[in-house]
Every structure is written in structure tokens, then in C-alpha cells.
Design brief:
By secondary structure, the protein is an alpha/beta fold. It is built from three helices and eight strands. It has helices at residues 22-31, 89-106, 127-131, and strands spanning 6-11, 14-15, 41-43, 49-51, 69-74, 77-79, 82-83, 111-113. A hairpin with a 2-residue loop joins strand 6 and strand 7 (82-83). The radius of gyration is 14 Å and the shape is globular. It starts with 5 loop residues before the first strand and ends in a 10-residue tail after the last helix. 34% of the residues are buried. The model has no long low-confidence stretch (mean pLDDT 96).
């Protein structure tokens, strides 16, 4: 198994409310010449979590940071062609479920956004502003 150190959130850069899934994203990525979808998980509009690339395989989602991370993509991220946090309530719940599930298996993994590692808007908001509380470790008394 890989030595995982972080979870990185992405968006599909698709219009708000447009329904896509992991098979659509896989098709897009393969059309670019990739061997498979770049993400490990995709969160659909209704909160369904779909598997992408197997977790024990290096993803293709953040240049220079794929070997030690899990890539998670939510469907959406654009409104009228501009970056916007379009996560539905169901997607937000699914995101937290994935984070907690991965931590149960692999231990503490901090959450980050793609835009923390590149000059892209993805995931169309600042993960630390919205989900930084997930990175606060409990203190022992």
C-alpha cells in the first residue's frame, strides 16, 4: 500500500446541476491519453460516492503530489462558466464521510484543495476556509 499523507479535493469543472459520474470523467481523462480516471473517488450530485482509480494506485490529479495523496472530485464547480462552490448538501455529507472513512483506515490525513498546489481555481473555493476544521487535531488534557 502507498504511504498516504493527504486528501486533495477537486471539482469536475462542470456547470452547477449538470449530472456527471465517474464513468464520464474516466472517458474525459482517457480521451486526454491517460490510462484511467485520475481521481480515486467521485462524488455525484446526489451524494453517491463512486470509485475511480484504485486507492492502492497513484492517482493523476495533482502534479508532483500524486504519490502520497488521495484524489477526490465532486461533480460541479462552475456557474455560468466561472468557478463557484456548487457542492450540494448531499455532496458535502459524502465528502465528510469519505474523509472520516479514509482516516479510519489510514490514520489522520489532512484535507487540501487542488488550488493549494497549483494556480487553478479547482475546487472553486478555499478548502481551508470551508473545511479547515477537519484539520484540527484534538488535544490531550
Amino acid at each position: 500500500m502507498r504511504n498516504l499523507k493527504r486528501i486533495i479535493l477537486h471539482c469536475s469543472a462542470t456547470e452547477e446541476g449538470k449530472d456527471f459520474d465517474a464513468s464520464d470523467i474516466r472517458t474525459w481523462h482517457k480521451a486526454r491519453g491517460w490510462r484511467d480516471i485520475g481521481y480515486h473517488y467521485v462524488i455525484c450530485l446526489d451524494g453517491t460516492i463512486e470509485r475511480g482509480r484504485p486507492i492502492d494506485e497513484v492517482g493523476a490529479h495533482v502534479k508532483g503530489h500524486n504519490s502520497d495523496s488521495v484524489g477526490i472530485c465532486y461533480v460541479g464547480g462552475l456557474k455560468d462558466g466561472k468557478p463557484k462552490d456548487t457542492m450540494t448538501q448531499e455532496q458535502e455529507i459524502a465528502w465528510m464521510n469519505i474523509v472520516f472513512g479514509l482516516r479510519m483506515v489510514f490514520g489522520y490525513l489532512p484535507v487540501h484543495g487542488h488550488n493549494e498546489y497549483s494556480s487553478k481555481a479547482c475546487p472553486s473555493f478555499e478548502v481551508q476556509d470551508k473545511y479547515g476544521f477537519l484539520n484540527v487535531l484534538p488535544t490531550e488534557n
